[in-house]
Amino acid sequence: MNLFADIRALVLSDLAAMVAEGVLPEGLSTDNVAVEPPRDAAHGDMATNAAMVLAKPAGMKPRDIAETLAARLANDPRITSAEVAGPGFLNLRLAPSVWQGVVGAILAKGTDFGRSDMGAGKRVNVEYVSANPTGPLHVGHTRGAVFGDALASLLDFAGHDVTREYYINDGGAQVDVLARSVYLRYLEAHGQEVAFPDGTYPGDYLIEVGQALKEKVGDKFVDKGEQFWLDEVRDYATEAMMDLIRADLKALGVEMDVFYSEKSLYGTGRIEAALDDLRAKGLIYEGVLEPPKGKKPEDWEPREQTLFKSTDHGDDVDRPVMKSDGAWTYFAPDIAYHYDKITRKNPDGTTGFDALIDVFGADHGGYVKRMKAAVSALSGGTVPLDIKLTQLVKLFKNGQPFKMSKRAGTFVTLRDVVDQVGPGVTRFHMLTRKNDAPLDFDFDKVLEQSRENPVFYVQYAFARVTSVLGKAEAAGVAVDDETLAQADLSKLDHDAELALAAKLAEWPRLVETAARSNEPHRVAFYLYDLAGTFHGLWNRGNDVASLRFLQEDAATSQAKIALARACAVVIAAGLDILGVEPAKELR
What is the DSSP letter of 290? Predict the structure, then answer.
């Protein structure tokens, strides 16, 4: 049940009738006709821009269209008034029975209320985290992990077929540095004193890895040159780090469907196949790039390289894929990886994904255009790529910046955060800002029990409903969902009660809006607003006895508890998308 979609369908039906009657000309596009909550709730329950959108192509005044449309809409029993405002906006008020019906629909469908078929089963690959396998995940990775995981859940809820994927960056020089760092810990495990040169990883997390390597190979590599141990230690260390990363993700409640190794692209012909595809399209050539902006000519040496003509697909400059010495650039395997996504065979026999989403850290902003160009070229423009950048997280504790982790050596780890505040609090708070806005994470404030803490405010609403249900059961009132769904919901006639039902009705529309824009933070924002509306009704009950959820007679109590329970159901569904467990009680 999507009430906004239902009323939009009514608007479109009446517009079609106006065309049939000759009031409007034929051939008008109604794609941009919308039905939305009004900016000011005092103006009504819903508003439509139909007259404003159609006036110019129809060659008519918007107000004339709006007045005719208003008269038609007022004939529907769901509409109590349709008022023209300004130059031609149309504000609608709905009958109380409509809002009361929303409560019954929620209780009938449970947490599936709001679930959409908008995605039509389209296959979407969401790649997120994808950290270098050189150590534990840090707080920046945490934000990307939460955002990507919540986005994947949101898209699934909106009807997409979602694959969660982690790209293991194990093909570059950083894994050689990891191997050398583990080797030093391995020597240390053999009783040798070691020093960590600049650029290596000195974190304590490698002590156990070095010890485990000693237990596996004994003194096989002690005092041996790199040529004897680098490959084996690199593979061992990478797998050990991936085990650590998987454990970190599990602690946060993140489970991937696919872990894809960058290393698997090398020496297998996959990079060559991707570039051959681009070459066949005339997009690979040998050339010399202009000097980078901001560099003096004398600081730059022109070299012929193999280039991808990314400017043909919206990039600012063409990009090198092979260096003058014949080595791949870092961009080449990334092209091949996305080529794999586009051409990958699916279990059902289909090929590739219908859409790709990459979640990158803020430091990858300069990478967006070239990656979009590559996917556009490889797919012939048929597979959209949306790249979401997650901005930095600033940590505070006791009012002071919190910067250090002994175990990591130089940064605060994901585990540092989760161990202090829990996965649910971590996840919700990471979504209290849009992904491209900086976020402050104050360890004290995220645990604070106040309205200013969105995590607590939403969970408190769910806990209050749980408390009401418990008291009702103790009083002998049946409050199972099936019974509540059959309650006499016409008893919900106060403006405050109808306002809460109206807020619940926004949930299906919110899901589709958030999914279309790939913005899971909208779910967190909505839950906070919903909780605020619920708490407002609860507080009014302190002064107005008739608004309390428990009344003298069971029938009235069940109607009012049905509204509270419907609120809890939607909160549970929203929290599930965010990966947060609802709290039945707060202490």
Answer: P
